[in-house]
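Q: Could you fold this chain for me?
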Amino acid sequence: MLPDKEEAVYELKIAGEMNPGPWTGHSLNVGIAARNIAKKVPELDENKAYILGLLHDIGRRVGIVNIPTHVYEGYKYCMEKGWEEAAKICMTHSYVLMQEEFDYEPDTKEEIEIKKYISKCKLDDYDRLIQMCDALATDYGFVILEKRFVDVTRRYGIMEQYIKGWDKTFEIKEYFEEKTGCCIYDVLPDIGKTTLLSPKPWKLSAGN
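A: Sure. Below is the predicted structure, expressed as structure tokens.
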């Protein structure tokens, strides 16, 4: 079960009022990217893809939080609403490597619950789509994957797992390009223009 488009837009609006920041613009653009790509994949529903994109970061509504916290808070919120498909996306969107992400024993409540969920989770094309679109969308528009990876690294620093995640995201891009029969970048408005912009990285104090 999912909310309709209007409710999803409203939820994002309210969440942005609770925790203002560029993450809401990013979420809107993830939704647009997912919708545009899903239009070209017969087995995907463009409205569902749009809604899932809008809600993937909804856990940030609680305030300035790190990756595991916003993932888990989003999952809990969507489950409380009865939006199981959105809850799954909240869990999977930040963990492109899935089970391989957790080659350690987490010690926080959020990560323990996330690892438990991810260990039993099987990805579908909506999960893959939002994982990829999360890496294509900024708050100011769409950018090629390399640009987005640099942006994230400037915010969080570099780790070996990031490189593996980048490789996996490129694999997903190739997967969807085979399904759509076109370059993914061709369906993202003004990507050539926005890729050339160089805004300062998001800061936690700005609603990361």
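A (continued): The radius of gyration is 16 Å.
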